Fold:
Amino acid sequence: MHAGSGLLDRLDGRYRPLVTDVSLALGYVGAGLLLGQEQPPAGWRPVDVLGAVLTALVGLVMVARRLAPVAVFAAAGALWILFIACGYWPVVNSMPALLGLYTVAATRRRPTALVCAAVVGGVWVYAGIGNIEHSSMPTVLAQAVLFPAAVFVVGRGSGALAERNRQFAELTLRLRRQQEEKALQALTEERVRIARELHDVVAHHMSVISLQAGMASYVFPTDPAASRRALDTIADTSREALEEMRRMLVLLRVGQEGQQDGAGYAPAPGLDLLEPLLERVRGAGVDVTLDVAGSPPRLPQGMALCASTEWSRRR
Structure:
């Protein structure tokens, strides 16, 4: 169901402009035919069958205005000129030509849009000259300049806004990809850090186990009691190692099994745990002393873990 909805959304987004243009073209055809039924001003002939056909053609070519703006404008302009040459009132089919000019101004270069605006103005002047007896040339000239100029300005502004929106969408997509890459990089770095800490924890305890196992093997023939103490220490250290590994795995599973914040957590081995480590070494029969001069500095957790692990390796 979700995949089907996504497909429908993509199809709807792809065909929505076409549906809009078809609706707009049909609306222009209907409006033009209704306007053609009105009594035209003096000097113009009423819209008959030929005029209705030309009106329908002028409106229908607007369906492809997004695909070929200049070609559609040229076709609409040619049909509009033919409509005027037949003696019909030019206002009936002026809106499709202005819409074509708007589309060209919004999607094409400025020189092309200026040429199309000049064509609209020229056609308007041509219509006024064709009905010069009933037209006021100053009014016709004003309309021939103001109407195309207003549509040109609005079209250029709309095109600039659409371009900024497109750039903003690309920038948003690029930013989202960068955020995903940074999140993936941070996740990788965190996994490496956890793996390094887990390695240090295991090395910390395995050093003690190795030392105690060697001592137990060495003193077993002569001192079974010391050997047993060493084996007990190995058992305790193994248990603690398992607990530390479990703690690290709990950190990796947080949020998946309802783990409460801070529940089941334990501090990683650090300098404060050196004394228990020394006790285990002394239990194996090794004479070890710890001298602390001054107040021990408070080290970061990672540094303290590395220091204690390195000490256990050297022992």
Summary: The chain has nine helices and no strands. Residues 27 and 59 are 8 Å apart (CA to CA). The radius of gyration is 43 Å. Residues 137-219 form the longest helix (83 residues).
